[in-house]
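Final report, closing paragraph on structural work. Over the funding period we assembled a curated collection of sequence-structure pairs, and we close with a single example.
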Amino acid sequence: MKFSDEEIALYLKDHPDFFTEYASVLADIQIPHPHGDRAIPISERQIMDLRERNRVLQDKLSELVRFAEENSALSEKMHRLAVVLLQFTGLNDVLQGLNYNLREDFLIPHMALRIWGITIEGQQAPELDKTGPDIPSLAESLQHPYCGPHVLEEIRDWFGEDGIRLRSFAMMPLRTDRTIGLLVLASEESQRFYPEMGTIYLAQLGELASAAIRRFASA
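Its predicted structure, as stored:
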């Protein structure tokens, strides 16, 4: 009678004491080396499997440590930015400081934003220029920061001559008790801002910028 591979495997699973009774059989079994033509004892193959599993676990642990270190660094940068924004006494200072810190501390090369729905006395800046109707509608529709390659042409125009070279964007609505603007980050790198990336810190950045700008609103 000939048994199939599945029947043999099932028998061994159902009779775990088999190799206890026939220990010499286990020692004599030779199986193919996973990376060569020679045969090796099953015990050696088990050791190799354990080493591979340990390597995979070590890689995962290293990745978790790296993520933790990156998150810690980002948290520290966000804290520094919040402290800096609190020190400014005018809207133009906030806008310039935000742009500078994003570029120098976060290595984000391009930033643009527009503000509406609030009055800021004695301030003149491109960020206060009137937008087309699609911009407020877009900002209102964003429940979370958007990351990806697509923006409205009007938004691309905010970046001037650099706009044509930009390949990825992150858009965050500026909100207090209502939507008051749109903050856009951009890069020439297509994968700097991509749809699957995490947006927790981007959302926090939008909240920080919103609060800093709202301080100078008179209505």
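Residues 85 and 172 are 18 Å apart (CA to CA). The mean pLDDT is 85. We thank the funder for supporting this effort.
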